[in-house]
């Protein structure tokens, strides 16, 4: 479906999920961190948010399974003069050599099949370093008309329960004007924080993982 939408769109800017600016709560999370470190953009699409994170000084990995989206994202990164590592795969299949200080999901989770949600949640614990921040944009209500295999929705309470023991720092809402039969969709925007040591720890974990003799430590 997504590959078809990219092929038919007159421009990536015309796609219903396109945003020229990052989520405000992502900006809040980034502003509060004392150092940058590593960032992961899940379902990166056209790369707007991945480029933003790179411009803030993060080392960024961006994952999407749509080749056309990644092509547009690479072009955006080149035009912006920043380096982003792009990976073409299903997000739940992505494993990292070391965790991330910031993880962003702007509209990816609500399109995953229900059977993959638990795998996504387990992956998040692997992706996100203690002291890290997770920002999620997720539809908050069903479409007006039932759509087979359509996107899922999640209330604020459901999000808090799903991502516990991550702590909800801020919650906001936004709207997407999606073509019919979905129509105007309300989405929750969540900023979660993983309790633990503060900023910059992902790079520390990476250095520890690569130290000689780590495999023998007890």
Task: Describe what this molecule looks like in 3D.
- With 218 residues, the protein is an alpha/beta fold.
- It has one domain: Rossmann fold (3-Layer(aba) Sandwich), CATH 3.40.50.
- Helix content is 30%, strand content 27%.
- It has seven helices and seven strands, in the order H-H-E-H-E-H-E-E-H-E-H-E-E-H.
- Strands 3-2-1-4-5-7-6 form a seven-stranded mixed sheet.
- Strand 1, helix 3 and strand 2 form a beta-alpha-beta unit.
- Helix 3 runs parallel beside helix 4.
- The N and C termini lie far apart (48 Å).
- The N terminus and C terminus are likely disordered.
Short description, anyone?
This protein has 218 residues and is of the alpha/beta class.
Features:
218 residues; alpha/beta; 7-stranded mixed β-sheet; disordered N terminus; disordered C terminus
Secondary structure topology:
Layout (H helix, E strand, L loop, with lengths): L1 H7 L15 H9 L5 E5 L5 H8 L3 E6 L2 H14 L3 E5 L11 E7 L10 H11 E12 L16 H8 L3 E12 L4 E11 L7 H9 L9
Parallel strand pairs: 1-2, 1-4, 2-3, 4-5
Antiparallel strand pairs: 5-7, 6-7
What's the overall geometry? globular
SSE succession: HHEHEHEEHEHEEH
Tell how many strands the DSSP assignment holds.
Answer: 7
Total helical segments: 7
Please state the second-level CATH architecture: 3-Layer(aba) Sandwich
The CATH topology name reads Rossmann fold
Query: What would the average pLDDT be, to the nearest integer?
Result: 80
- State the share of residues found in helices, binned by percent: 25-40%
**CA-atom Rg in angstroms:** 17 Å
Strand order of the largest sheet: 3-2-1-4-5-7-6
Structural class from helices and strands? alpha/beta
* N-end to C-end Cα span: 48 Å
CATH class: Alpha Beta
* CATH superfamily annotation: Vaccinia Virus protein VP39
| Number of spatially distinct domains | 1
Share of residues in strands: 25-35%
Low-confidence stretches: 2-7, 204-218
Summarize the main sheet: 7 strands, mixed
């Amino acid at each position: 479906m997504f590959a078809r939408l990219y092929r038919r769109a007159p421009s990536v800017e015309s796609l219903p999920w396109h945003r020229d600016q990052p989520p405000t709560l992502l900006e809040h999370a980034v502003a509060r961190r004392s150092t940058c470190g590593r960032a992961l953009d899940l379902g990166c699409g056209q790369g707007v948010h991945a480029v933003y994170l790179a411009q803030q000084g993060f080392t960024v990995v961006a994952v999407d399974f749509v080749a056309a989206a990644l092509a547009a994202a690479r072009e955006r990164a080149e035009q912006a003069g920043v380096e982003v590592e792009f990976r073409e795969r299903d997000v739940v299949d992505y494993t990292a050599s070391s965790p991330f200080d910031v993880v962003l999901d702007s509209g990816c989770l609500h399109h995953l099949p229900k059977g993959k949600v638990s795998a996504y949640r387990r992956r998040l614990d692997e992706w996100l370093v203690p002291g890290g921040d997770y920002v999620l944009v997720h539809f908050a209500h069903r479409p007006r008309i039932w759509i087979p295999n359509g996107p899922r929705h999640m209330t604020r309470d459901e999000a808090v329960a799903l991502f516990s023991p991550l702590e909800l720092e801020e919650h906001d809402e936004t709207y997407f004007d999606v073509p019919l039969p979905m129509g105007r969709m309300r989405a929750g925007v969540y900023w979660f924080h993983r309790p633990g040591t503060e900023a910059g720890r992902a790079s520390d974990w990476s250095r520890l993982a690569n130290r000689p003799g780590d495999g023998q430590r007890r």
